[in-house]
Each structure stands twice: as C-alpha cells, then as structure tokens.
Amino acid sequence: MTGPAVAPGRPRGGRRDEILATFTRHVADRGYDRANFGDVAAELGMSKGTIVHHFGTKDRMLAEVQERYMGRRLDEAHAFLARLPGPEQRIAAFVHAGVRYSTLEPATTVAFQREVVRLTDEPGMETARSQRDAYRDLVVATLRDGEEAGVFVPGDARLRSLQMFGSLHWMWTWFDPDGRLRPEDVAAEFCRTLLRGLGVPDDLGALAADPHGPVARCVAEVCVSAPG
C-alpha cells in the first residue's frame, strides 16, 4: 500500500530535498531560465520523470524555493523583533540578517534575489508573494514605529524600506563571502549608513551596527541554516 500523497510544495525530505537543493544551486549559478530538469537529473543520476513526479513543473519548484526561503525569514524576523526593544535595534537586525543570509544560505539567497522579480505577478507565486509582502510590512512598521517614537526623523517609510531592500537584494551581484569584505563588516557599514540617514544618534547607531554587539548576537542566535 502506498502512503498518502504529498501536496506540491510540501517538504518531504530525502531525495526530494536533494533535487530541490540542486535545482536551487543551478538557479543561483545561471538563473531560472537556464536551469532545467535535464541538468538536475543528470547531476543526480536520475530520470527527468522522477523530478516531474516530485514537483510537477519547474515553476512549482521555483515557487517552493521562494516559499521555503521566505517562510524561514519571516520566522526569524518575528523572533528577533520579539527580543529587541528599540526601533534602531530592530532595523539594524533586518540588515544584519539580510547580509548573514548570503553566507548562511548562499545558493538559496542568490536564487531568491536573482528571481525575486517573478514574485510581482507570476502565476503560482501567490504564497511566496504574500510572504514577501508580510516581511516588507514588518520593516515598514518598524520604520514608522521609530518615527513615532522620535528615534527616526520623519520620512516615507515605504520608500525607506525600498532603499534598504535595494542595497541587500543586489548583494548577489558583487558580494563574495570569501572575499576581502567579511559579511559582518558589510552589515555593520550598511547599518551605520542607514541609521545615520534615519537620524539615529551615533552612539545608538554604533551599538546597533556593532558586528559583535547585542543586535548581531541576537540575529546570529535566531537565524539558522536550512534543514537538510
């Protein structure tokens, strides 16, 4: 007797996760349009039919990559927001986390960042799109809270969130985790620049940006690598 069917997009582990991880790496290396079932199957020594059996379509595979990735990011964001009281700490945590993902999950992060535009209106991306929007809303709410508390100077929170995401989401085009710049130093520099622009006093900004400070430590504790 066969077991119950697994709905598309639901993690099952084992061979299925191996297929998804290989596909994710191919998307990170060459982009979604050039990634294909044939290359994934050849690398794993299986038939393309096996991949189709597990995922159905390439679109469904990409959607699952995005959904898993954003699901983890949302869980982590809620965790560090619950532990950090100050708005400058919370905004800095989003930046520390955003840079940390480039070393924690390099292939998945690059795959997500390369193809994030597909979340705009591609069919099948509704879940990932809503997750992305929920994450953005957390950042916007934090920016507004900081303004209301007098910690941030008045400004357009949505526009500020776009500035922040723009700097982080394009890191895949230039950042080398093994290069001259350490990820924690990149995060600290980004934090200092952002917080100064928001009007945060230098002493508070320096503490929030510190790569060895309480914010960075909190992020390190709640941000974990993908299972398997």
From TrEMBL:
InterPro entries per record: Homeodomain-like_sf, HTH-type_TetR-like_transc_reg, HTH_TetR, KstR2_TetR_C, Tet_transcr_reg_TetR-rel_C_sf
Domain of life where this protein originates: Bacteria
Signal peptide: none
Pfam families, per the entry: TetR_C_24, TetR_N
Domain HTH tetR-type: start-end pairs: 13-73
Feature: DNA-binding region: 36-55
Keywords in alphabetical order: DNA-binding, Repressor, Transcription, Transcription regulation
SUPFAM superfamilies for the chain: Homeodomain-like, Tetracyclin repressor-like, C-terminal domain
The keyword Repressor appears for this protein: yes
PANTHER family: HTH-TYPE TRANSCRIPTIONAL REGULATOR RUTR (PTHR30055), HTH-TYPE TRANSCRIPTIONAL REPRESSOR KSTR2 (PTHR30055:SF175)
The protein, known as: TetR/AcrR family transcriptional regulator
